[in-house]
Structures are given as C-alpha cells and as structure tokens.
Amino acid sequence: MSAADQDWEEDSPERLYVITRGRSGLAERTTFDLVTLIVSRSEPEPTMQPEHAAILRICGSPLSVAEISAYLRLPMSVVTVLLADLLAEERIEARASVPKAILPDRALLEAVMHGLQKL
C-alpha cells in the first residue's frame, strides 16, 4: 500500500484530524449525547465541508447523534465536533432526548400492589 492510499483510509487518524481541523470532541460532549436529536435548519451549500453537508442532508428528519455517527461512519467524537460547528452557525437544531420518567417510591408501589391484591 502506498502512502497516498493511506491518506484515504476511512479510519485513518490523519483523515479524522483533517475533518475536525485538529479539534477534539471533549468540549462538545456536554452538549450532545448519543440520543440527542438533530434536525437540519438549512440546506447544504456547495462550499461547505462534505461532512457538514452530509449531516444537513440526512437530518431532514430528526436523527440521533448515534445514527449520524453510524451513517457517516465516523467516530462519535468527530461527529460532535462537526455538530458543534453546525449548531454555532444555527444550521441545525439539537433537541434533548426525552427525560427519564420519575418512578414512584418502591414502598408506594408495593402498597398499591398489596391493596390491589386485597380486592
């Protein structure tokens, strides 16, 4: 394999470095998690980075960050950097996942079950 072929490998660290312009996803992890839903607010422009344009194209309907990562075949850390760029430019909307339901106290559930059993 030649050096030129290595530059185009999908999992190449160099390729990922170029895509993110050397930035890491550490700061963006506070904004996005795997189930954060992403929706496009604009159309891709011809001058955009290909990965940014791809995100805008596939997010016409809400997709989770995990789905975007899978569709683009990019690590989550790279996707969060790209999403942070698009969010800063107001090209996407990030929707928090549905919060976990607050369950009642176990003692209360047991009391209700015992009451129902007595009926």
TrEMBL record:
It holds the Pfam family DUF742. This is Uncharacterized protein DUF742. It comes from Kitasatospora atroaurantiaca.
